[in-house]
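#random but structural
TW: two for the price of one
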Amino acid sequence: MNDRAKLTALAERYVATRAATEALATGLSDEDQVLQSMPQTSPVKWHRAHTAWFFESFVLGPAGIAPIDERYAFLFNSYYDTIGERVPRAKRGLVSRPSAREVGDYRRAVDEGVLALIDRVGDDGDGERAESLAQIIELGLNHEEQHQELILTDILHAFSEQPLHPVYRTGAVARTTASPPCRFLAFDGGLVEIGAPPSGFAFDNERPRHRVFLEPFALASRPVTVGEVKAFIAEGGYHTPTLWLAEGYATARAMGWEAPLYATCDGDGYRVFTLRGWYAPSDDTPASHLSFWEAEAVARFLGGRLPTEAEWEHAAASVDALAAGRWADDGVLVPLPVASEGLGQLFGDVWEWTRSGYEPYPGYRIAAGALGEYNGKFMAQQNVLRGGSCLTPRGHVRASYRNFWPPETRFQMSGARLARDV
């Protein structure tokens, strides 16, 4: 495929990805789009504007194209100190202007500029320039897909705090057949390679590919389930300090945790608030909205442990990510029971906490310039999650993909999978 054909295909993907973001906001009122329910979340309108700002700052700006509104650099920068000052994260919900409609106008103006630039570079025959443009747009599209997931997780938290508990997506959740029994699949371990290969798109934190030594281990055939979390609750797991890491137990007690976020477990059974409203999942449904601390405690309660990210990736290397689990594109927006044998739902349905802290791989170097702030400066005091969820765009993750959040995080679609030593 020549440079022109590559850029044409990239332009088509650009249009589809940008439209997918706008589709997520369809049905939300202007008031919905400005909600910020806690400092860790952002308003839908801000996500829409920030992803446009990303393309304006890193694609159009370097091409000499003037900003559409110079004030937007302050309003919609996220954490790029190299670029300049910004609205504090906790105050993004105060940015009532520009309006949601004006943000739509901003997105369309940026799109026109990016598509015109792609067309111009495709015509000038400069292969090096075409490759450079393609790489930054590819990064921008993957960045936008991350924010598509955040739009869903953040509006879910906002709606959970709203007294009327609005429903984002209507319609009943189709039940699946009962899951096969949980089994543990053994892996020999030894010297293995993890990390993204040199070619093809991957975020910088997935590289360089390197060798690690693994002791023999076994991995559960499906994620931790609602039924297992219910047993943890019934047996007083939230009040049993020997199941918890010290900081986790202190956090759970200080925050009054008695069940995963959005879940109630009482005389009316186990119910979870979801993007489809209140929902009573079956016992074999993957448990969701667990913090790392809770995932670690539940794993101990069940006689296992969390896998390391190297164990998880080694096990996932032979699994087809696209063929496993539910993704945002499927429109279900809640995890469902596993329906297959083998390593079920290793991708999709719920992100899976690992025991690994988020650290640089051997030989990792932070890139020069503002884009070097994308991942590298967060490599401390966070834990790695793997696999994607039912709120992740299909095709966004791969075996080497590293998600990361502080261990107390619960508002993400996060679950767990057991590992054991062999």
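TW: number two ↓
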Amino acid sequence: MDEIAYVVGDATRPSAEGNAIIAHVCNDIGGWGRGFVLALSNRWPEPERSYRRWYAERETNGFGLGALQLVSVGDGLWVANMVGQQGIRRSGGRPPIRYDAVKQALTKLVAEAQSLESSVHMPRIGCGLAGGSWDRIAPLLESTLIAQRIAVTVYDLS
């Protein structure tokens, strides 16, 4: 557990024994409909429903950049909706990814993964529609999850 494991495969089908959390980055405007979230919604309806409800009730529940929502999708399997993207479009030449918010959400994910005795699985979060760089995301995983000896697997589609 000293480093991120990289595999070719589908992040919605974690290759793990024991409990697993599938983590991904969401935006802060309630949008769900492009990118990895489509793969999640094709497997389970609850992560999208929970995210949309969380957004709709945001005045009272802590929704916002850096927030984390854990959604159970099966026995020993959860999806972590992490709000790490401001909007869905570039603004002033800046992509929607907010690295500080991703780090805040990952820090919260550490506590959840420890509590559930879970490994964490993900695509290259924040590097698709959010416009982030893996060279900046990977160190965030290392300083949060990996530093706390939580197994992390990153999936690249073939």
